[in-house]
What does this fold into?
Amino acid sequence: MKSGKVVIILGVSASGKTYYKERVTKEFDLYQLRRVITRTRRKSENNSIDINVSKEQFKIMKKRKDFFIYTKINKDYYGYLKEDLKIVENGTNSIGDCYYKLIKKLRKIMKDRLVIICLQPYNLEKTMEKIVRERDDYKKRVKDAEREYKFYEKNKDKIDFMVYTDYSTKTDEKVDEIINRILRN
It folds into this structure.
């Protein structure tokens, strides 16, 4: 049986990761990898399937080896469930998003099943304004966005598809085109 593809969407805060993950999941009938998080769910994540747990619960899950990958970002933990990898191995195409520092580990785990799409804003300044409007923790997020933006620009060779977003239907069409190409191969 042929393994499914795993599409991972990366990008700075407010670049549209959650929007595209949810949109593409429905449009292309992809399985959404379940993410376990210790942070509070954001307003923009109303339809998210994230599983919120306490830090203590996360540490127990980590000890039980429930995750195939996990990380700590600032004061919170994020992990993807190992049982979801079995779904991919059985041929199901999946989608998720993750922290940029996990790219290397993901490649090692998923090898040629992994396809990384990075959403990069055309105009970082406008994205920063969006972060300030939408996030309570905007000071930290702005600093993180600057660092991540530079990382993605320097590490394009680690990313399969770089999509410069202007938050329009043109970006939607570009992402759809990429997903179609991934699913055909």
In short: The chain has seven helices and nine strands. The radius of gyration is 16 Å. Helices lie at 17-28, 55-63, 82-89, 103-110, 124-134, 138-154, 169-184. The mean pLDDT is 88.
